[in-house]
Structure prediction request, 206 residues.
Amino acid sequence: MLKIWGRANSINVQKVLWCCGELALEYERFDAGNEFVITKTPEYRELNRNGLVPTIEDGDFLLWESNVIVRYLAHKAGDGRLFPAATKTRFDAERWMDWQATVFWPALRPLFIQLIRTQPANHDAAIISRAEELSLAALRILDARLSDRCFLAGDKFSMGDIPAAVAVHRWYELDTAHPKLHHLCRWYEQMKERRPFQEVVMTPLS
Prediction:
C-alpha cells in the first residue's frame, strides 16, 4: 500500500492527500513534520535527505516534492481523471503547478507565517504589507486566467488545479483583506464542492 509521510495540516501534504482522494487511492499516512520530530531522525533522512514532508513510499519507490508526487500519482492512475492526455493541456497544467511553487506560495507564505504562526506582539508590519501586495498580484494573475475557462488547464478539473487551490484556501482563511476577484471566487467555490477538498483541505490552519 502507498505510504505517505507528513502531517495532515501541511499545505504540501494536503496536495497529495487531495490527489489521492480524487483518484480513490488507498494509503497509510504517518505523522511527520513540525511538532513530529520524526523528520529529524536518520531513518527519515534515508527516505528524504531534505528532512521535509511529504515523502511517499510506493513499494520500493521513494518520491518527495509535493507537486511532483501529485504528477506521479495522477500519471500512474492512467485514466485521465487528473493527468491530461493531450500534450499541450498536460503542460499547461504543469505550468500552473510550477507557478504555484515558484510565484504564488513564496508570495503568500510570509503572510501565512506572520498571521498564523507568529504571536501578534511579534508581527512585522512591513513583512505583512509586502506579502499582502505580492499575494494579491499573484491572485490577480489567477483571476485573469480563470476569466475564460472553468479550470486552470481548460474545461476539466486536473492536477493543475490542486496546488493553487490549497494555497488560495489559505489566503481566504487568513485575517487579511480579500478584494473581490470574481473568477477566482467562482473557481474556489467549485473547489469547495469537491468532497476530497472538503475532507483534506478545509481544516484549521496551523
The chain has a mean pLDDT of 97. Residues 118 and 170 are 16 Å apart (CA to CA). The two ends are 28 Å apart (CA to CA).
